[in-house]
């Protein structure tokens, strides 16, 4: 599923919910009204009660995607590689620090590759992630 998902607000919401464990996201970007922010961030009002949150553009801004790497850092080691220009592709691999487990994702941007790999690392239900300091 995550290997086919395109960059965009739906993926950003899914990553916020499963990787960063944001509550109230509900993977419903169709119910978010967005206003412009700076530096790859956006303010979003979720039309589910009075929930107000700021969901980073994880899948399109590499600085925001790097928050996922920092959040997973306690249990996962990240490797990010750019393949030669003719392939126009990035690969991200998370290797578990204590188990012989690694997952990877690839895409035409580093941010999207990080998102795809991070979703694989936490699995379909998500796992506890230490928020970055």
> What's the CATH H-level homologous superfamily?
Bacillus phage protein-like
Query: What Rg do the Cα atoms give?
Result: 14 Å
Overall outline: globular
Give the helix proportion (percent range). 25-40%
Q: For the report, how would you describe the main beta sheet?
A: 3 strands, antiparallel
Coarse structural class? alpha+beta
Oligomeric state as shown: single chain
- Tally of domains: 1
Beta strands, count: 6
> Would you state the CATH class?
Alpha Beta
Describe the structure.
This protein has a 3-stranded antiparallel beta sheet, with no helix packed on it. It has a 3-stranded antiparallel beta sheet with strand order 4-5-6. Helices cover 26% and strands 24% of the residues. The C terminus is likely disordered. It has a single domain, classed as Bacillus phage protein-like (Bacillus phage protein, 2-Layer Sandwich). The chain starts with 8 loop residues before the first helix and ends in an 11-residue tail after the last helix. It has 3 helices and 6 strands, in the order αβββαβββα. α2 packs parallel to α3. With 133 residues, it is α+β, with helices and mostly antiparallel strands. The radius of gyration is 14 Å and the shape is globular.
């Amino acid at each position: 599923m995550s290997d086919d998902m395109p960059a965009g607000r739906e993926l950003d919401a899914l990553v916020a919910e499963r990787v960063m464990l944001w509550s109230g996201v509900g993977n419903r970007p169709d119910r978010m009204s967005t206003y412009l922010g700076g530096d790859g961030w956006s303010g979003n009002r979720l039309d589910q009660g009075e929930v107000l949150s700021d969901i980073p553009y994880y899948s399109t801004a590499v600085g925001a995607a790097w928050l996922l790497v920092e959040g997973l850092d306690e249990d996962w080691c990240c490797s990010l590689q750019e393949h030669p220009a003719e392939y126009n592709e990035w690969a991200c691999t998370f290797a578990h620090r204590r188990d012989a487990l690694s997952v990877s994702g690839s895409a035409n941007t580093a941010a999207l590759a990080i998102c795809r790999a991070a979703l694989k690392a936490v699995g379909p239900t998500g796992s506890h992630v230490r928020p970055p300091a």
